[in-house]
Write a structure and sequence with these properties.
heterodimer; A: 764 residues; alpha+beta; Rhopdopsin 7-helix transmembrane proteins; six-stranded antiparallel beta sheet; five-stranded mixed beta sheet; 24 helices; 19 strands; rod-shaped; disordered C terminus; B: 235 residues; alpha/beta; Rossmann fold; Arc Repressor Mutant, subunit A; two-stranded antiparallel sheet; 11 helices; globular; disordered N terminus
């Protein structure tokens, strides 16, 4: 078996082996079942019991459906006997004659509740089988007695392939589907104990239903060896299946308390019951079989309720439960429909066979629920599914009500109910669907203004855009939690599009800048799972935002490029000319002016083409420059700089202006103070940066002169108006004070928002 | 630290500047630079060039002791001349003279092998003083440059270890060199750093010269590797 798996990538591993083994087993078992079914000797009729009359009714075996009325029967057969031969006399005939009790053709002997009925069934079956089998072996016909007492001769042949009929195939297929589904789920989610028990239960499905197919699909007889063994077999498999289901519920989604002990204990009990059933003791089968089915079913329901109570907070489990409930509802509806239809239409027999359809239907729910395949999809389909089911049920019940209560003709009833439901229900359903969808799905157009806001926030830098995007996501999806996770450097290159994680519990959306991704957990404050609708909206929002931001970046890049070009031109043209003046003006003093102009130009260009700088680096640069200058001028320098707040970035403009303030202040100290000491203080107080430059020199002229500002020539000479102008440009304040050292103290405070314009990276 | 052999003999024992090369496209400035050179090193013989190709031709003709090189030239960048000197005349002292005072121009010049960096608009006496100090072994080093050098060595040579066994040790910064750079990057002046380490100012200057040499070696090695990678030359 396993050799088929080698070298096949899809079938590699335990899952592959399990699946292949399962399929081989399924084929083997089906063939076995067909072989047994074909052994039955056939009279060319299918017999059905008639509880209200004598004997059994005979139908054409090719007739597909057993929903048949008594009037459609070809014959009523009362008795059977071997055909007259030369050797056998009248007496012999009488001895070989078997009166046919209606019991003999009962669809499922397991339905016979009394042991004496069951015994009578087996005896009768065996006698008739013997008779037919003997006739078949001798190639002789048999005679059957019809309702009018007349005997007719009927040939016996081995059952044909085409005599198997739907009654045989339906249960067989209904056993195969759950098996395939169960094996798939089991292999796929082997790590889940619940899935493994589901696998065991679904293994029982083809075992039991192959037997059921042989029994219910038979023309009327069961092979003597099979009749009783099959009963025992199907009881055992049923017990195992119901046990496995109960255990699945005990372990799924999460094991309940003391699950292990319960599993072990009930396994022993199961083993005992299996042995008892094989031994057929005690005599009363209710004690060794039916009672336990009831017990297990009750436990199953109890455990299901317990599990759903334990996990009612988790939307994934809730969705799993919904799937299960939905398919159980549909599956049981099939049974109920069949029952109600037979009741209303007064059909004599509706075959048990068709109720097996409910088994695969139930398995669809189990597959999705335990297999956890795209559970979140149900979040989307839940409402339409309910409405669809409601529509179907309405049609069926309207039709039945018309027939049963108003005695409307069947054909007219179905037409009428379709018309009524079509005109009344479906428009209402459309309307309801539209309303529900509108309320549960985020709509792109609603959030357009926010989106435009987020794109515009990009103008204030990436940090602001990120912030706006965060707010937008929070507003659209209203998640329980949201966190930004850094991407691996490998994954960062290609930002993954929005997608669903963790079975709909989380939605991952790219972040602005491609360095991270937002992980939103549980939509709408935990009430919903994320669905493809959310993904769609998130992708569209992201695409629009990305487009907007990238256009902004292009614009910014174009501006930067242009600035660089201007800067380069200024250097090359204006700079060269100024340099010429510097060289030519050595004699008449214009050189100094030109040199200053060159320096000013260079600083402006740097502010124009510069990049935002980390505050820590700026402080280091200031220190290196100012300390060297003061040192060279013979000053004792005291450098008091605080550590800047982590991650503080200075924009080029702020950097340039503050550098100039410090430079001019220090120039004043060097040129005019006449002192020997200088203290430079840089502090970060609250949301402001505070610069202090003080000396021990001769101090400022009297206060009135200073208050007049630029009018005072001394102050102008000190460059104080420049310091004032620069501080005001940055929205800050300046003060010229008397230093504790004895000289002047220049005190400039500039708000930190101005500094943090490009934003300190926010801790996520 | 193991005792190393004297660093960069070229500079320490190369005091007499006999031949200087001036590469500058503006005639007036060219003339003025020649004056600066003569003022700094009386009796020095000056050769001038206005273009990169001229300068390369001069370099091929004869050895120089000193070169003052402008960056923006009509047919290219002065860095090519710096590189050629570094390659063909390792004893020559290439000094970049420019109007740009930003790191964006300074760092590539250092990588190319420039030993000094002068700003054109400074008074002649300042330039002369700086030139003299430079030839005595004190190259300029600012915090931004220190940061860039640190970053260069942090992710540069390690990356190429397997390919560059032979020069690996040569281009790795020593512990002391890294410390010096880190302090410069924090804004400490060279005298302060010398004091902190209890070393002479000259020793610190030696470290910096060594750092520049390694920067150039590592940059050239990177360039060679890059060229090899692109299939321009055989590795």
């Amino acid at each position: 078996m396993t050799h088929t798996t080698t070298g096949h990538p899809i079938l590699a591993g335990r899952e592959g082996r399990l699946l292949v083994a399962g399929l081989v087993f399924l084929a083997f078992w089906s063939i076995l079942s067909v072989v047994i079914a074909l052994q039955e000797p056939s009279l060319g009729w299918r017999f059905v019991p008639d509880p209200q009359g004598q004997g059994v009714l005979a139908y054409d075996p090719h007739k597909a459906v057993k929903v048949a009325e008594r009037a459609q029967a070809e014959q009523r057969v009362l008795a059977i006997r071997p055909a007259a031969t030369d050797l056998a006399g009248q007496a012999g005939r009488g001895a070989g004659e078997i009166r046919l009790d209606s019991l003999i053709a009962v669809e499922a002997p397991s339905m016979l509740s009394r042991q004496e009925d069951l015994d009578r069934f087996f005896v009768l079956q065996n006698r008739v089988w013997e008779l037919l089998d003997g006739a078949l072996a001798r190639a002789q016909p048999v005679e059957v007695q019809l309702a009018d007492g007349q005997w007719i001769t009927r040939a016996v042949h081995a059952r044909q392939w085409d005599e198997l009929g739907w009654l045989y195939w339906v249960p067989l297929l209904c056993g195969m589907v759950p098996f395939v589904v169960g094996m798939g789920v089991c292999a796929w989610r082997w790590q889940s104990v619940g899935a493994r028990f589901l696998g065991l239960a679904s293994l029982m499905a083809p075992l039991a239903l192959a037997e059921v197919a042989v029994v219910t699909g038979r023309l009327w007889l069961l092979a003597p060896w099979f009749a009783e063994a099959g009963q025992i077999f199907v009881r055992c498999t049923s017990l195992v299946a119901v046990w496995a289901f109960t255990m699945m519920m005990l372990h799924y989604p999460t094991p309940l308390r003391q699950a292990r002990a319960w599993t072990r204990g009930s396994a022993w009990l199961l083993l005992v019951l299996l042995v008892l059933n094989v031994l057929q003791w005690p005599d009363h089968q209710a004690l060794r079989y039916k009672l336990w089915l009831v017990v297990a079913s009750a436990s199953l329901i109890g455990l299901a309720i317990r599990q759903s109570l334990v996990h009612r907070e988790d939307p994934v489990h809730r969705a799993a439960g919904r799937w299960l409930a939905a398919s159980a509802l549909v599956a049981f509806s099939v049974v109920i429909y069949a029952f109600v239809v037979s009741l209303v239409y007064d059909v004599q027999v509706v075959s048990n066979s068709y109720r097996w359809v409910s088994v695969p239907l139930l398995y669809v729910g189990l597959m999705v629920s335990v297999g956890r395949a795209n559970l979140f999809e149900l979040e989307r389909w839940w409402v339409p599914l309910c409405l669809w089911y409601l529509g179907g049920t309405l049609v069926v019940f309207t039709d039945l009500a018309l027939v049963a209560l108003l005695r409307v003709d069947a054909g007219a009833a179905i037409t009428l109910s379709l018309l009524v439901i079509g005109w009344l229900y479906f428009p209402a359903r459309q309307w309801l669907l539209g309303r529900l969808r509108a309320s549960s799905r985020p709509s792109l157009s609603t959030f357009m203004p926010d989106l435009i806001g987020a794109v515009n926030a990009g103008l204030a830098g990436e940090q602001a855009a990120r912030q706006a995007w965060r707010q937008l996501l929070a507003r659209v999806f209203d998640p329980l939690t949201m966190a930004c996770e850094p991407l691996d450097s490998a994954a960062a290159g290609a930002a993954a599009p929005a997608h669903i994680l963790d079975m709909g519990r989380a939605l991952q959306v790219p972040d602005v800048g491609g360095q991270g991704a937002w992980r939103l957990t549980l939509a709408r404050r935990g009430r919903q799972l994320f669905t493809d609708d959310h993904v769609q909206v998130a992708s569209q929002l992201w695409q629009l935002l990305d487009l907007g931001l990238s256009q902004q970046r292009q614009t910014q890049a174009a501006v930067d490029e242009e600035r660089l070009r201007i800067a380069s031109d200024l250097h090359d043209d204006l700079g060269a000319k100024l340099l010429g003046i510097v060289q030519a003006g050595q004699a008449d003093g214009t050189a100094r002016l030109a040199r200053q102009a060159l320096e000013e130009m260079r600083q402006s260009v740097r502010g124009m083409a510069g990049q935002p700088v980390a505050a820590g680096d700026v402080l280091a640069d200031w220190r290196a420059e100012l300390v060297s200058r003061l040192d060279a001028a013979g000053f004792a320098v005291q450098w008091d700089a605080q550590e800047p707040p982590a991650g503080l970035i200075l924009s080029p403009r702020v950097h340039l202006q503050l550098t100039r303030v410090l430079r001019e202040s220090v120039s004043n100290v060097v040129r005019h103070s006449g002192g020997r000491q200088c203290r430079v203080g840089i502090a970060f107080a609250g949301d402001a940066i505070v610069l202090d430059v003080e000396d021990d020199g001769q101090g400022l002229p009297p206060a009135p002169a200073l208050a007049a500002g630029a009018a005072a020539p001394r102050a102008a000479g000190l460059g104080l108006p420049n310091i004032e102008r620069r501080a005001r440009k940055l929205g800050g304040q300046h003060r010229f004070l008397v230093s504790g050292l004895g000289g002047v103290r220049v005190h400039v405070t500039v708000p930190l928002e101005g500094l943090a314009g490009d934003g300190a990276p926010q801790a996520h | 630290m193991a005792r190393r052999k004297p660093i960069d003999r070229r500079i320490r024992y190369h005091r007499r500047m006999q031949h200087a090369l001036i590469v500058e496209d503006l005639p007036a400035i060219r003339e003025w630079l020649a004056e600066v050179a003569r003022a700094a090193f009386p009796g020095v013989q000056v050769t001038t060039a206005g273009r990169v190709d001229q300068a390369l031709a001069r370099v091929a003709e004869r050895p120089f002791d000193l070169a003052l090189i402008d960056l923006g030239l009509p047919d290219g960048t002065g860095l090519d001349v710096v590189g050629a000197l570094r390659h063909h005349q390792p004893r020559a002292l290439p000094v970049v003279v420019t109007i740009y005072d930003d790191d964006e121009h300074l760092f590539p010049a250092l990588q190319a092998g420039a030993f000094g960096y002068l700003l054109k608009e400074q008074p002649q006496e300042t330039l002369v003083a700086q030139l003299l100090r430079m030839t005595q072994g004190e190259p300029p080093l600012s915090p931004p440059i220190a940061r860039r050098v640190l970053a260069h060595f942090a992710n540069g040579p390690q990356r190429q270890k397997t390919l560059m066994r032979q020069i690996e040790d040569e281009v790795k910064l020593t512990e002391r060199e890294t410390e010096v750079l880190q302090r410069v990057a924090k804004g400490y002046t060279l005298p302060e750093i010398a004091q902190q380490f209890g070393l002479s100012r000259h020793t610190i200057a030696d470290h910096i010269k060594q750092i520049y040499r390694k920067l150039n070696v590592s940059s050239r090695a990177e360039a060679a590797l890059e060229a090899a990678r692109r299939g321009l030359v055989q590795p």
